[in-house]
Specification:
It is globular, with a radius of gyration of 14 Å. The mean pLDDT is about 95. About 0% of the residues lie in helices and about 50% in strands. By secondary structure, it is mostly beta strands. Strands 2, 4, 5, 6, 9, 10 and 11 form a 7-stranded mixed sheet that branches.
Amino acid sequence: QLQLVESGGGLVHTGGSLTLSCEVSGRTFSNYAIGWFSQATGKERDCVAAINRFGGITYYTDSVKGRFTISRDNAKNTVFLQMNTLKPEDAAVYYCAAVLGSESPSTGPPVFPSLYDYWGQGTQVTVSS
């Protein structure tokens, strides 16, 4: 069983920055693709960013391109989401999720929540205007 624990959420002003962390334990971390998902109140859970198991291919939803950066440190079993120039519409609960990744370094990570097998409990991001 894989365990994921998010941290780093909080309250920030518009234009501010936060770095979310997702620490993974229980299995070989480097075998897993990791995604970050956001879910605002009353809305569906959507993929914000994802990274394949090798770290070489990433995905970003259009609304965060140029502002968010996903990265992974396989030595620390951790995935990070650097969030810059935050906007009120970024406010949500952010979840990290994991799924066994493709053995091909050229395959990108999944982006649909239904394709992920393991989930963290989430961390709240609030952006004040």
